[in-house]
Amino acid sequence: MLKINYSANITQIIDFYGITKTQAGTVPTFFFFAYGIGQVFNGVFCKKYNIKWMIFVSLFVSASINLIIAVGSNFYIIKWLWLANGFVLSILWPTIVRLLSEVLPKKVLGTSSVVMGTTVAVGTLIVYGLSSIFAAFDKFKLSFYTAGIAVTIVAVIWAVLYNKAVECAKNEKEQEETVEKTNPDAPLQEHQKKGERKLLFASIYVLCFFAIGVNLIKDGLTTWVPSILKEEFSMSDSLSILLTLFLPIIAVFGNAVALKMHEKIPDYVNQCAMVFAIIAVFIGVIIESLTLELIIIMLFGLVIVNFLASSLNSLITSIFPMFMRGKVNSGLFAGVLNGFCYLGSTISSYGLGAIADNFGWNAVFWTLMVFCIVTFIVWCGYACMKTFYTTNSN
Q1: With 90 as the cut, is the pLDDT of residue 85 above it?
Q2: pLDDT for res 374
Q3: Is the pLDDT score of 160 beyond 50?
Q4: Can you give the pLDDT at residue 220?
Q5: Which terminus of the chain has fewer CB atoms gathered within 10 Å of its CB, N or C?
Q6: SS3 labels along the chain
Q7: What is the pLDDT of residue 179?
Q8: What is the dihedral of CA 274, 275, 278, 284, to 10 degrees?
């Protein structure tokens, strides 16, 4: 909610301040840059954090930034405020993943992953829904007021209930570990063969690269679909935002689908590669429908692509670090992988906006198509490496 207010209202912001798409795209680019760097930074240091108060401070500061934007009138200060917003919000993901991996029993990891994977989609749905209503009255700044006030309340509730909730979860985990007599936090090198360790980290490197493309697609669509609908199909701000709601509505189920797919395809990289191939097909559908001005088919393609990209985002940033908690530092890799995701987000805002300004929206989707093709090439290299390590494993 705190991080997508700007993107949800970007068409009105462009009109209100009289700026170009490239200028408008600078603001989320600043956010994603700070958020991505912050993810890696906080992933490294979150092990030392007092979780209760770090998350409280993150929420409270971000809420305050949203309120400052709501009352301000200078566009050029917004990018710096959104830069700060990106960094303080970057505290949340690695810290929460660390918390869940430390206190939750194994039996609820899948459920918690689904819940974590739906939060972004649900938040996006709420923000875009409210923004559509506010746009109908030409009052987009109400979105920033709403987020600022609502999240301040959430921060207070978090601080009040944290200790009791964590104590209950830890007790249940300790009971489970006593029965199973397992040690899920054993270091990787103590129970993995050399070849298997190399393959694990090779998969992490590939997932980092895939993460860039995931958010390049996902956040690129979330940011720019209202502008596409407005410019290509002459829709009003309110209607373009409302139609964009289809993206997060369907994406809510992305994490559950990712989990089901993972049961059939246990290799994380193989699962990503297969989904990218499907995404490429539907990007082709979008390009053709945009050329022929077939809005229904284009919307269908956008929804499917966003759904698939959201499922991969959950797989990489939530399912992988939580399910691999016995082999890797969950908080660290949640931060690192999410940092690479937001490198893609950084490119999506300014980069795709600049491409649209200079070459049109068709060129934007061809850019996304090219990345999908590159992921296939990277996967081929990984497949060869996996075959080698599997064959020569000691």
Answers
A1: yes
A2: 94
A3: yes
A4: 83
A5: C
A6: CCCCHHHHCHHHHHHHHCCCHHHHHHHHHHHHHHHHHHHHHHHHHHHHCCHHHHHHHHHHHHHHHHHHHHHCCCHHHHHHHHHHHHHHHCCHHHHHHHHHHHHCCHHHHHHHHHHHHHHHHHHHHHHHHHHHHHHHCCCCCHHHHHHHHHHHHHHHHHHHHHHHHHHHHHHHHHHHHHHHCCCCCCCHHHCCCHHHHHHHHHHHHHHHHHHHHHHHHHHHHHHHHHHHHHHHHCCCHHHHHHHHCHHHHHHCCHHHHHHHHHHHCCCHHHHHHHHHHHHHHHHHHHHHHHHHCCHHHHHHHHHHHHHHHHHHHHHHHHHHHHHCCCCCCHHHHHHHHHHHHHHHHHHHHHHHHHHHHHHCHHHHHHHHHHHHHHHHHHHHHHHHHHHHHHHCCC
A7: 54
A8: -120
Per-residue tokens: 284: 């082709």
Task: State the amino acid at position 100 in one-letter form.
Answer: L
Distance of CA 57 to the CA centre of its chain: 21
Q: Among residues 315, 324, 94, which one has the least CA distance to residue 207?
A: 315
Q: Is the pLDDT of residue 167 over 60?
A: yes
Instruction: Quote the pLDDT of residue 176.
Output: 57
Measured CA to CA, the distance from residue 58 to residue 351 in angstroms comes to: 28
Q: How far apart are CA 194 and CA 213, in angstroms?
A: 30
Check residue 392 and give its pLDDT.
65
Q: Would you call 49 exposed, middle or buried from its count of C-beta atoms within 10 A (0-12, 13-18, 19+)?
A: middle
Determine phi and psi for 6, rounding to 5 degrees.
-65, -50
Residue 208 has which token pair? 């980092």
Can you tell me which residue has the tokens 């989320």?
28
- CA dist 335 and 98 (Å) reads 10
* Length of the chain (residues): 394
| Token digits of residue 271 | 């699962």
Least confident among 112-121, 339-348, 367-376: 112-121
